[in-house]
Structures are given as structure tokens and as C-alpha cells.
């Protein structure tokens, strides 16, 4: 195939005992992996992110963003798809609602999935 659609939902909740702070984060991402050569994809994507922290008061940060990642996949076998990847990307984010002073940002990302 030439590529595939991907969708990911990441949810994280935490409570920090020493500081008595609670936090919740949710990130939904959808993109398209376009095969550019054997074991490599170019992935334009869009995402929404929502964060809430509670200490004395509740603070919210919600933002949207888009970006592109270059993925190098490895570890495949004759019968199984490659489970591992190394990723390099660029992403722009814009805050919809925030308590932070910065409302937008440009990020350079490097990551791996093992």
C-alpha cells in the first residue's frame, strides 16, 4: 500500500502527594503515513490537546496543532510489520484557552518507539 491513516488517543492522570496537585492530560492525534521508501514514512498530522491542573484553583490549557514527522521503521520480519520506529518532526501549536503566557509555539521533536 501507499500509506495508512493513524489515530491515537493518549490520556494521563496524576496526583502529586507532596505538592497536593492533580493533573489530567488528553491528546488526540490523527495523521496519514505516506510511504516514501522501504521502511520510511512521511506523516502529516493534526492534533488537539487538553490539560487541567488543580492545586488551589483549576487551570486549563487546550490547544490545537499540526505537524509533520519523518518515521524510520525497523524490526520487521517476513510475517510481522515493523514494531519499532525513530521519528524526527516539526510541529506548530496554537492555544485555544490557556493560563500560560505563551499562546503558540513551534517544536522540533525527536522520538522513538521500541
Give a short overview.
It is built from no helices and six strands. The protein is mostly beta strands and 114 residues long.
Structure characterization notes:
- Helices cover 0% and strands 76% of the residues.
- The chain is mostly beta strands and 114 residues long.
- The chain is elongated.
- The chain contains no helices and six strands.
- Proportion of helical residues: under 10%
Which strands sit side by side, in order, in the main sheet? 1-2-3-4-5-6
What is the H/E order? Answer: EEEEEE
What's the β-strand tally? 6
Poorly predicted tracts of residues? none
- Beta-strand level of the residues, as a percent range? over 45%
Oligomer: single chain
Radius of gyration: 17 Å
Question: How many individual helices?
Answer: 0
For the largest beta-sheet, the strand count, sense and barrel status come to: 6 strands, antiparallel
Mean pLDDT value: 93
The first-to-last residue Cα distance is: 23 Å
**What structural class should be given to the helix and strand makeup?**
mainly beta
Give the overall form.
elongated
Overview features:
6-stranded antiparallel beta sheet, mainly beta, single chain, 114 residues
Which SSEs are present, and which pair or pack?
Blueprint: E1 3-16, E2 21-37, E3 40-54, E4 58-74, E5 84-97, E6 104-113
Antiparallel strand pairs: 1-2, 2-3, 3-4, 4-5, 5-6
Amino acid at each position: 500500500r501507499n500509506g495508512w491513516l493513524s489515530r491515537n488517543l493518549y490520556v494521563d492522570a496524576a496526583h502529586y502527594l507532596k505538592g497536593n496537585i492533580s493533573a489530567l492530560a488528553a491528546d488526540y492525534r490523527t495523521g496519514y503515513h505516506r510511504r516514501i521508501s522501504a521502511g520510511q514514512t512521511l506523516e502529516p498530522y493534526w492534533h488537539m490537546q487538553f490539560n487541567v491542573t488543580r492545586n488551589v484553583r483549576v487551570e486549563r490549557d487546550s490547544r490545537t496543532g499540526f505537524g509533520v514527522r519523518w518515521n524510520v521503521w525497523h524490526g520487521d520480519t517476513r510475517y510481522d510489520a515493523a514494531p519499532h520506529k525513530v521519528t524526527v518532526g516539526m510541529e506548530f501549536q496554537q492555544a485555544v484557552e490557556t493560563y500560560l503566557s505563551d499562546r503558540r509555539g513551534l517544536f522540533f521533536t525527536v522520538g522513538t518507539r521500541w
